[in-house]
Amino acid sequence: MHKNMKKATPYLLLFPIFIYYAVFWLAPVASGIKEVFVGMDGDFTLTENLKLMFRSDLFSESVLNTAAFAAISVVLQYVIALVLALLLSRKFIGSRFLMFISMIPMAITPTATAILWKTGLVKDGWINSLLMGLHIIDNPIVFMNAEGFQAILLLIVIDTWTVTPSVMIILIAGLQGLQKELKEAAYTFGANKWQILKDITLPILRPSITTSVIMRMIAAVQVWSIAVMVLGYSKAPFLVERIAFYVDAIPGVDTSTKLAYTYSFLTTIVVLLATVIYLRVSGRNKIAAGGEDE
Amino acid sequence: MMDRLNAVQKTVFAIILAGMVMLVAIPLLFFITVSFSNSTEMTQFPKNIFPSGEVTVYVEPKDDGKYELFYDYQDGSGYTSIITTNNASKLEKHFARQYAVVMDGEEILEEFSRTRTEGAREFTFRKDMFYNFKQFFKIVPNAGVALKNSIIVSLYTILISLSLGSLAGYAIARYQFKGREQINVGLLIVRMFPTVGISIPMAVMLIKMGLYDTMIGLAFLYSIPNIALTSWITSSIFIGINKELEEASYVFGANSIQTFLKITLPMAFPAMAASSMYSFLTAWNDTISALILTNENQTLALVVYKAIGTTSSGIQYAAAGSIVLIIPALVFTFIIRKYIGQMWGGVEL
Predict the structure, then answer these.
(1) B54-61 and B121-126: which strand pairing?
(2) What is the pTM of this model?
(3) 8 Å CB contact of A130 and B16
(4) So what's the ipTM on this one?
């Protein structure tokens, strides 16, 4: 009797979240998927809504932009952060202050970040004030007219400002955990700085870099608020920006609801793919780490 | 010894460091200044990096009992004539709207009357530094309610995530049972699952339940990733808590509930606090789900988002609203900074 109780305890403890996820997660996910495969007339259809999405305005732009944004911004952020981390990963006066400052951009609510940059990017904003004050430019630049790839680049710059300092902190933390003996041993054996970086520092950092890159990718795929708040709807279309557009800008139309569902479906698929990659990579890292211990 | 820097390296190091700090700090400084700027300062170009606390006007007395008011826009053209009046309420409005100087109109006129004896001169007034903040809550409909809503939805999210998540975390940490691995993977998938993907069907479901446009309905959505996150954070802590201590308390005759409340819970407190902060940040920072799941009862982040959509002038009020939005998010991020590195791939800060 007592033993049975003990066996049942974990399931009893987990029971509330089973119920919760069945009601608030599984049910909406299922009905969301169902909506994608039910046509406007209420009948089952495999491709009608997908075709509707493929043919909708700015579909290919939103896919390409999302891919470009996620790829370029993540690569840019990690390269800059890695260089900075390698330069700054030593004890120095004010290192705590640097950490403090570096945490701020990521800690700010995204809507506020968007407003911060909007006050800078308008023609009489602070960016032009600064550039002209430093005599870098003679006439104000009209950033808000940026279109197409330029607009994406603008958003990448904003995202890089937001994310890079935090990534740098994470990499510095990883580097400080690096055993000094390893480096010194390599020096003794005549390795140069570049060889140490390539053969010791980067391999040790790799697990923390790969997992955090995937987490960043997942966040970057869901970009929308800076795009809408800085430039407006449809100026720089992204997947989630399209969802917000169909919900917020043209609500109530049958096709817009269907399109919002279908875009949500697509975004979810993309994120889940990234999650599967994450699971694979982190699983491999665990095995690799275990192998090293032996 | 290999880490010691020479003079050139030291200089380069200092420059990189200073550049890095400035790149982060300068936009923030300008932004804070914008949130304290009055309408007149907003039309000025170039913008100042530091906020000013005063407004200076130049006043010339006129023969008909009126005063001509001049303002220097700092654009090199000197004092520009703004208005000529002796109407107290008009002056009062002008000073509030344009300069964020909140002062009784009669008092302003009395000050100006000194020009009758002393001749045309400059007057300097103190700005009401929180004028934009007050205006934000006045101009934006429901901003006050939205602030309250944001706090409520955050509390609900913390409550739901913590109570359900820590139970699950405890089960995963302390018991070996069938399906434990699968549950772990399942929780990870739920955590990564984009909430946008669920928001629209969730809205339909909440309408049926009568919970659409309520804070508890919104909290049900925000709790989805956070229950999983809480159970993940707390389980790693529960594993670390010394089991002998619990066993000792059993020996002294405590039952399992007493042991949990008196021994295990206090030791798990830091982890629970950290995961509560995460729940708070999810609820506090989100806009897209609030956009989909609410109608009248908006959250502060959503209200700030909408404020910028409607007006491009008066951006300083939206900036002031953002500052209100930022402060709690900043405070809580700094409290949980130790855990952020762990979230991002297992490094400790």
Answers:
(1) antiparallel
(2) 0.87
(3) no
(4) 0.86
